[in-house]
Design the sequence.
């Protein structure tokens, strides 16, 4: 508690110089507690800027994306006080800037939420385009379409997205693609705008419902979140509130798949089982025994997994953010599985790394054909992005011998204390400095 007070930790820098070393082959056993949802946190924190008085946000995950956002909020003039490692008090009363520079936004996708939040608060935002994971083109045309429908003028100047308005007013927006980011950004921009805003073909992810619940707890009037039509009746002011973030669906899914892949027996605690339905359905198809409780899910696998086909889709479909982890399970399944990516253009960059471990996968555009092998072999691999990094850890836990995962800064963006949590389940995984760093320290 004392250690956390008033500090925003920097996790990203150090993690670039570290790697995970995993000795595979041990089934996972025991229980793991899931943290607050990253993708809810990165929307709810910028939403605090819309309030006229301080907010307390609880069940925050301790991850570098959250630290990054809190630093941006401080730079914009918010007062940020850590109350514990997982709760923060933010006073947005004196926001005095509408600019989020490239340096401030680097490495996180969610910087774009400052566009909606600052536009909603100040009628002006200038924000560097988002960084984050590389899945090919990551357009924001639907966000811009939404802002323009509300009455903003949006331009790209010196690689910054500039949005400004004399006055915003409610409008109807049909999203041409189901976009989580555009749905959230329009909700942020519209919450305090006079009139009724309707988002059609809205995304339905659990974190969209969480953001709506948070905004409503500040006095907003948002209906329909979780369906494909969201109605936002603008209110003049939003007040401070205390709010606890939902559990992380993808972190939970990652431990569930890891339990099944290692032929383990794990209780995944502090989850919302309803958010995990598509993941549970696929695990059951592979032969896992899954039992649901009020706030926990028990996953047990006693034999080699069976093949199964997976297609990623927006919620309530199978989440794209679970695709790499599930593919690892299928690399050791009996038979041939088909994995189709239905959300991103390019989300199979990790396959090359899995092949170093003996996986037999062929990729053709958005389809991966996974021919199950009996065993994976440990190898040096890279975390090419956040979820791919989690998948490499699962592969390492399953494989015979030693796996080293480098570029783990990606993993620290979205998984709280991942090595500690896996170690508590009996895994042999540790975080060490990379050899380059050791050599540099020795020669200094
Ligand atoms: N798209 C457009 N135009 C837009 C916006 C999106 O064409 O203006 C397309 C994208 O190219 C993509 C699809 O729509 O093909 C879906 O993109 P979406 O906007 O839903 O993605 P996002 O908001 O950028 C969030 C998550 C991602 C997750 C996707 C899909 C956050 C911070 N990120 O991204 O999470 O993969 O939704 O569910 O919420 C992760 O956590 O590892 C991660 C990458």
Sequence:
């Amino acid at each position: 508690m004392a250690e956390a007070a008033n500090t925003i930790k920097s996790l990203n820098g150090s993690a670039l110089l570290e790697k995970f070393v995993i000795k595979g082959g041990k089934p996972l056993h025991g229980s793991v507690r899931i943290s607050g949802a990253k993708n809810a946190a990165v929307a709810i924190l910028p939403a605090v800027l819309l309030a006229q008085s301080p907010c307390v946000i609880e069940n925050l995950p301790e991850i570098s994306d959250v630290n990054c956002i809190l630093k941006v909020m401080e730079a914009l003039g918010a007062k940020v006080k850590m109350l514990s490692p997982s709760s923060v008090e933010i006073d947005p009363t004196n926001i005095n800037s509408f600019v989020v520079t490239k340096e401030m936004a680097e490495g996180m996708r969610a910087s774009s939420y400052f566009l909606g939040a600052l536009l909603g608060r100040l009628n002006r935002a200038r924000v560097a385009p988002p960084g984050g994971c590389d899945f090919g083109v990551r357009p924001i045309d639907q966000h811009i379409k939404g802002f323009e429908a509300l009455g903003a003028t949006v331009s790209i100047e010196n690689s910054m997205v500039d949005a400004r308005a004399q006055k915003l007013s409610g409008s109807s927006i049909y999203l041409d693609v189901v976009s989580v980011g555009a749905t959230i950004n329009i909700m942020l921009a519209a919450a305090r705008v006079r009139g009724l805003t309707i988002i059609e073909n809205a995304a339905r992810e659990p974190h969209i419902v969480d953001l709506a619940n948070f905004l409503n707890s500040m006095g907003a009037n948002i209906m329909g979140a979780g369906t494909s039509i969201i109605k936002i009746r603008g209110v003049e002011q939003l007040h401070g509130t205390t709010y606890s973030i939902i559990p992380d669906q993808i972190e939970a899914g990652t431990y569930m798949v890891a339990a099944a892949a290692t032929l383990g027996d794990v209780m995944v605690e502090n989850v919302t089982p309803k958010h995990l339905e598509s993941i549970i359905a696929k695990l059951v198809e592979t032969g896992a025994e899954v039992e649901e409780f009020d706030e926990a899910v028990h996953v047990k696998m006693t034999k080699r997994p069976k093949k199964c086909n997976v297609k990623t889709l927006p919620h309530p479909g199978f989440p794209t953010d679970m695709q790499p982890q599930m593919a690892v399970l299928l690399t050791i399944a009996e038979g041939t599985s088909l994995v189709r990516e239905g959300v991103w253009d390019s989300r199979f960059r990790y396959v090359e790394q899995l092949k170093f471990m003996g996986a037999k996968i062929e990729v053709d555009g958005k389809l991966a054909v996974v021919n199950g092998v009996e065993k994976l072999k440990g190898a040096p691999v890279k975390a090419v992005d956040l979820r791919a990094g989690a998948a490499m850890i699962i592969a390492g836990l399953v494989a015979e011998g030693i796996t080293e995962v480098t570029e783990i800064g990606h993993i620290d963006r979205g998984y709280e204390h991942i090595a500690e949590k896996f170690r508590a389940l009996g895994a042999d995984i540790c975080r060490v400095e990379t050899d380059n760093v050791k050599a540099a320290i020795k020669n200094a």
